[in-house]
Known about the structure:
Helices cover 30% and strands 11% of the residues. By secondary structure, it is an alpha/beta fold. It has one domain: 3-Layer(aba) Sandwich (Rossmann fold). The protein has a 6-stranded parallel beta sheet with strand order 3-2-1-7-8-9, sandwiched between helices. A 3-stranded antiparallel beta sheet has the order 5-4-6. Helix 10 links the parallel strand 8 and strand 9. Helix 3 crosses helix 11, helix 6 packs parallel to helix 11 and helix 6 packs across helix 12. The N terminus and C terminus are likely disordered. It binds zinc ion. The site of zinc ion has 8 residues, from loops.
Amino acid sequence: MAEQEAPGAADAGPGPGSDSPDSDSDSDSGAGASGESEMEFLRTLLSRTLGLGGEGPEKVLEELTLEGVSRFMLSDQCKNVVCMVGAGISTSAGIPDFRSPGTGLYANLASYNLPYPEAIFDIRFFKKNPEPFFALAKELYPGQFKPTVCHYFMRLLKEKGLLLRCYTQNIDTLERVAGLAAEDLVEAHGTFFTSHCLGTACRKQYNLDWMKEKIFSSLVPKCDQCNNVVKPDIVFFGESLPSRFFSLMQSDFQKVDLLLVMGTSLQVQPFASLVSRVPAKTPRLLINKEKTGQSDFCLSLLGYGPGLDFDSDKAYRDVAWLGDCDAGCAALAELLGWKTELQELVKREHAAIDTKSQQPPRDSAAGSTPPPQPAQTPGSSSEKSSGAEGKE
Ligand SMILES: [Zn+2]
């Protein structure tokens, strides 16, 4: 699916009016509550675009390179790192990016008799006809989930006390498997980690093992209390993003000292616009296969500012490291003096996952108790978060 079609993008605002089960909790995070931060955002934007504020934004990186970023990270100026990640950080874990050509997601859909391909991730269609989604989920359910070097690099950031938050577009739960806690995460497009009954009066929560068993039994998961369909907490088309996304965005992006953007082409809104919410001096490092997030005319019309700037003569804070996310994180870890620590962490954690998954025969029986395995399904763009935690 094209990234622009990401579920949730249509009614991206924190507003009511969607049929999302989260709507009720969205109302307390509305934009009105954030007047001050909006003013700050506008002020920053104006001073940047109009060249107000004299000498321009402070330059905190000595040089616009990975080395420059690593020196900044080791300084006492860098206390809060925010990561923004997408499908590119999970591809080396064997989880396909369904937006990439060749993964064949939509080509496989013909047998489901859908009115149009995206219907499979449309909440209105799902409520009437959930079978195609669960059939596809079974077909696409990955056999094993091993977080990547990049995921464990974020875990190291957390252990070093540097990680303010990880904003992820992925629904594969690999951040959690790697050891990030719910409070470290904003799962912007939701997650397979939890599921909820669609019955508005019920909303009972179910865990991943329960959902996996239903999926592999080819059963449409039904609530054991009210018999309504149970849906993984991923964001479908027609649903709003988790309220947590909008509420934390307000405070996190004012505090961030370094923005680390990894494995995302920054084309799904409103997620992509987050890069423009950081303070004017905050350095932004992109680790990705190609440059992205640069000037976007449409975005600037929406007031999102000029995007990332790696190459112009005005560039002063943005760094692009092009290549594989794991290699980029390994290179950064080396510059930070964390190379051995990262390698050992990956080795230890992967060994633990292997040990667990060897006990019951992997991939076979649905009824066994496999390790906590994330499910990646409908395009990493359709995800829905655990914003509903504790609502049950
Ligand atoms: Zn129920």
